[in-house]
Amino acid sequence: MWQKPTSLAAALALLAEATSRPCVIAGGTDLMVERQLGNAAAPDAWLDLSAIPELQGIDAGADTLRIGAATPLRAVAGHSGVQARWPMLTASAALTGATPIQNRATLGGNLVNASPAADNPPALLAYGAELELASARGTRRLPVAEFYTGYRRTVLGADELVTAVYLPAPDEKARQYYRKVGTRQAQAIAKLSLAALYELDAAGNIAVVRFGMASVAPTPTVLPQLASWLLGQSPSAVDPAALRKQISRDIAPIDDIRSTGTYRLQTAARLIEESLAGIANT
To answer: Is residue 61 packed enough to be buried (19+ CB in 10 Å), middle (13-18) or exposed (0-12)?
Structure first.
């Protein structure tokens, strides 16, 4: 059974009435790959969100960016307001697959798929983004950092949809860094990726730091111990050996088909060092 509601209220009503959650689809790019590989069983029911206007669109306000969950990544990457104030998200959206994929893949789908290697969660984590979750029972918001509970698992209820992503506007003096490391420069699943946002105090020391990193843990991670350790330090005076010890307290990457845990741990440290060097040299 294929259901294609044309309003958010209708979609939420269908979920509330369902005895088991249908397969929710918007762009379908991840699901098509999984089906082709034989990793996904054919569901009994589908819920197509592609015709719901409330889930589309980008509103870049003075203090907040709102992106509808079913907005294609190509639209995110090409939006001038996002490019101007949230460049890490512009970069991550532009590196999610090739252009045909970006034309269909949605920001919400990239999040709900809950892959630890997903391209956009690191940027959202570094910006301190929040998700809007809705059901027939009501609406709630929570930080992206609280959305993931484990490998491919989230807090999303059986009757809920992610409806929007909210990003606070970063301080005008904030320094931003994003880099994805893959086998190729395009159309590659990340071996790891890093988004980092820094704010410095009047003395040039780190006053605020937020990280988002992919492919180094069962879920996208914010490197909490490293972030806390960096506070108050000068970017140019951070000790590399001590930094590497701190990173190993936050992550213990595994070996898989794309890379080794040792490579990921070493490269994670190098990306952090590169982000700090960029601050020190500006």
So the answer is: exposed
DSSP 221: B
User: Which sign does the torsion angle of CA 147, 80, 84, 99 carry?
Assistant: positive
* pLDDT (0 to 100) of residue 79: 98
d(CA 144, CA 3): 28
Give the phi and the psi of residue 37 in degrees, each rounded to 5.
-80, -5
Phi-psi region of 92 (alpha: psi -120 to 50; beta: other; left: phi over 0): alpha
Is the pLDDT higher at 55 or at 100?
55
At 43, the pLDDT band (50, 70, 90 cuts) reads confident
- The residue written with tokens 């606070």 in the block is 168
What stretch of H or E contains 88? Answer: helix 87-94
**Are β-strands 153-154 and 58-60 bridged in parallel, bridged antiparallel, or unpaired?**
unpaired
How far, in Å, CA of 9 to CA of 6, rounded?
9
* Pairing mode, strands 46-48 and 23-25: parallel
pLDDT at 185: 59
- Read off φ and ψ for residue 203, nearest 5 degrees: -85, 0
Is residue 138 pLDDT above 70, yes or no? yes
Q: Is the pLDDT of residue 81 over 90?
A: yes
Question: In the numeric block, which tokens belong to residue 179?
Answer: 């880099």
Mind giving me the DSSP string for 121-180? HHHHHHHT-EEEEEETTEEEEEEGGGTEEETTEES--TT-EEEEEEEEPPPTT-EEEEEE
Band the pLDDT of 255: cuts 50, 70, 90.
confident
**What are φ and ψ of residue 135, in 5° steps?**
-145, 175
